């Protein structure tokens, strides 16, 4: 059995956190180390951790430090972490800004299971991302 991919999930919505925890537990290919409510909490946790996750999924809109600023900070301070965006927004300018600040790909919140499947494929060398979709 392959080792599980270390993942952190950052979203200020408790429902989204609970849903993601259930999905990840059922998939058995990820190891959810922790969840955070915003980018400030994430950066603090990463600074205090003895490990770095391989994957970080960030919500776009969060209080204190949103996804774009958090992606920028992670890319600068923790370049080995692969950042993915997660949003209900369809604002193309925000999505492009998210990518310019370090997000590999931005996913819609409409299908989190598909998002996790695509991230897994990407980490295994397959590029499932279509440039024309979020």
Task: Give the secondary structure arrangement, pairings included.
Layout: E1 5-10, H1 14-27, E2 30-36, H2 39-48, E3 55-59, H3 67-77, E4 82-87, H4 92-100, E5 103-108, H5 112-123
Structure notes:
- This protein has 134 residues and is of the alpha/beta class.
- It has one domain (5-123): 3-Layer(aba) Sandwich (Rossmann fold).
- It contains 5 helices and 5 strands, in the order E-H-E-H-E-H-E-H-E-H.
- It has helices at residues 14-27, 39-48, 67-77, 92-100, 112-123; strands at residues 5-10, 30-36, 55-59, 82-87, 103-108.
- Strands 2-1-3-4-5 form a 5-stranded parallel sheet, sandwiched between helices.
- Strand 3 (55-59), helix 3 (67-77) and strand 4 (82-87) form a beta-alpha-beta unit.
- Helix 2 runs parallel beside helix 3 and helix 3 (67-77) runs parallel beside helix 4.
- The longest helix has 14 residues, at 14-27.
Fill in the keyword field for this structure.
134 residues; alpha/beta; Rossmann fold; 5-stranded parallel sheet; globular
In short:
42% of the residues lie in helices and 22% in strands. It is α/β, with parallel strands linked by helices.
Shape: globular
Helix and strand element order: EHEHEHEHEH
Largest sheet: 5 strands, parallel
Number of domains: 1
Question: Could you name the ranges where pLDDT drops below 50 across 5 or more consecutive residues?
Answer: none
What is the terminal separation in angstroms?
A: 31 Å
Give a count of the beta strands, DSSP E runs of length 2 or more: 5
Strand order of the largest sheet: 2-1-3-4-5
What level of helicity do the residues show? 40-55%
Find the structural class using helix and strand composition: alpha/beta
CATH class bucket: Alpha Beta
Any idea what the CATH architecture is?
3-Layer(aba) Sandwich
- Relative strand content: 15-25%
CATH topology: Rossmann fold
Mean pLDDT: 91
How big is the Rg? 14 Å
**Helical region count?**
5
CATH superfamily: Response regulator
